[in-house]
Specification:
Layout (H helix, E strand, L loop, with lengths): L1 H9 L4 E6 L5 H14 L4 E6 L9 H5 L5 H10 L4 E3 L3 H4 L18 H4 L3 H16 L3 E5 L3 H13 L5 E5 L20 H5 L2 H15 L6 H15 L5 E9 L15 E8 L2 E8 L1
């Protein structure tokens, strides 16, 4: 992979990269389409398929993560991807590896608080992939907003010569954010999962109707009402609901237009996340 990347650089070819954990869906295809537009018809689009074991807090979650490689390769071919990089765990992690990339500010709230060590694992594998693929541009999805923000911070802090592009979340007709984990939702679980988008719309409407934003006390009450709304679904359990600043990722004291809401909700055994600007 790295040898290929060096050849592309010598030829002056522009390289766009879409890192994924496979189980591709229309959301991934939208990222690939964006990557192609950014590097042009003569550029190189690389997609990686790698289910990173170190970023899973639960081994069972890692073991059941979908991995339909043949389907993914077909989708990549149909989408005009030039190269697909599929390393093994043994290739990406040596037995004596002892270095990790850690961010100490943006990684603390929300997903960082709920999943200790998760973001260090994400930043480490993304850093390794960047060093192998050597892209000019890397495209990530807005659904993982905190992750994308952390990667942008890492690229600035560590002086990677890479442009990070964050593409909008693609949603199903009923509003559910597209995710590889959605394959675990069957029957009523899939129906219940729609509540995340309905919750976001309720929060957005409440903020828009407020005069000058929702202060701390009102925000606490709104979170409580949204939690009750979500947990009306019999298989739903809220991990967190947070209103936060887009730049600092810290909770806001007063929610207003331009801030964001983020949710993490278990539907049955499947943990879903979503976010949107208010």
């Amino acid at each position: 992979m790295q040898s290929l990347a060096k050849c592309w650089a010598k030829e002056g070819l522009r390289v766009s990269f879409v890192p994924t954990m496979g189980a591709l869906h229309a959301g991934h295809l939208s990222l690939i389409g964006r990557a192609r537009k950014l590097c042009g018809a003569q550029g190189i689009v690389v997609v990686s398929l790698f289910v990173n074991p170190t970023q899973f807090n639960d081994l069972r979650d890692f073991q059941k993560y979908p991995n339909p490689v043949k389907d993914d390769l077909r989708m990549c071919a149909d989408a005009g991807v030039d190269y697909v990089f599929i390393p093994t765990v043994a290739e990406m992690y040596g037995e004596k590896d002892s270095t990790q990339v850690t961010e100490n500010r943006l990684s603390l709230p929300m997903e960082g608080a709920s999943r200790p060590g998760h973001f260090s694992a994400v930043l480490t594998i993304v850093s390794k992939l960047f060093n192998l693929v050597r892209p000019d541009i890397a495209v990530f999805g807005e659904k993982d907003f905190q992750q994308a923000t952390l990667i942008q911070q890492m690229v600035r802090d560590l002086n990677y010569p890479i442009r990070i592009v964050v593409a909008p979340t693609l949603r199903e007709v009923d509003g559910l954010a597209m995710s590889s984990r959605n394959t675990h939702l069957h029957g009523s679980l899939r129906t219940q999962a729609r509540s995340l988008w309905h919750c976001i719309k309720k929060a957005r409407q409440t903020v828009h109707q407020s005069s000058g934003g929702i202060p701390t006390e009102g925000l606490r009450g709104l979170k409580h009402r949204l939690k009750l709304f979500l947990e009306q679904q019999k298989d739903a359990r809220v991990d967190y609901i947070e209103f936060f600043d887009e730049v600092t990722l810290l909770p806001v004291r007063k929610a207003q237009r331009g801030d964001r809401i983020a949710l993490a909700v278990f539907i049955g055994k499947t943990r879903l996340i979503d976010n949107a600007r208010l």
